[in-house]
From TrEMBL:
Organism encoding this protein: Sphingobium indicum BiD32
InterPro entries in UniProt: DUF3617
Name used for this protein in its record: DUF3617 domain-containing protein
Domain of life: Bacteria
Length: 162
């Protein structure tokens, strides 16, 4: 009977061990969806070497709304030119990071006789985005315009067949 006690204790303790942890479930990535988007851009700051108070106030009243057929690359990055709006053409990403609904990037664009660099940071889902943008336009190596914007967007559906 004494020999049975240690066995009972061993088997009893065996039932007290903690269960194995559940395997971690990998989150599905959040990918922005291509399609027809409405992008709303509100000017929040505007500065040139010669800006007057009246020009500054007028700039802060600017809100534009554009329908764009937004393409998204294999990494989930939206078309750089669509994010730049009227502040640049032939835009490319200098750096970019899109992860877990957060987008941080710098765009390099052609702008008139010079270039513009646009820093973008904000959040997105598959069919919405809310970004802050800071654009610096340069000509001949010197800054000629700096502007900041709030950019929001909503996917409306597939792009119209054209």
């Amino acid at each position: 009977m004494l020999a049975a006690i240690p066995l009972a204790m061993i088997f009893g303790l065996g039932g007290c061990s903690e269960p194995a942890p559940a395997p971690e479930v990998e989150e599905a990535p959040i990918l922005m969806q291509a399609g027809e988007w409405v992008l709303t851009r509100k000017t929040t700051g505007y500065n040139t070497p010669t800006v007057t108070p009246a020009q500054y106030r007028a700039a802060l009243e600017q809100v534009s709304e554009d329908k764009v057929c937004l393409s998204v690359d294999g990494e989930g990055m939206p078309d750089a030119a669509a994010l730049a709006g009227k502040d640049g053409t032939a835009c490319t990403y200098k750096d970019k990071m899109a992860r877990k609904g957060r987008l941080i990037a710098t765009l390099a664009c052609t702008a008139g006789k010079g270039t513009s660099e646009i820093a973008v940071e904000g959040n997105y889902t598959a069919d919405t985005l809310t970004l802050g943008e800071t654009m610096t336009q340069s000509e001949g190596g010197g800054a000629v315009l700096r502007a900041t914007y709030d950019l929001s967007g909503k996917r409306m559906g597939d792009c119209p067949k054209g």
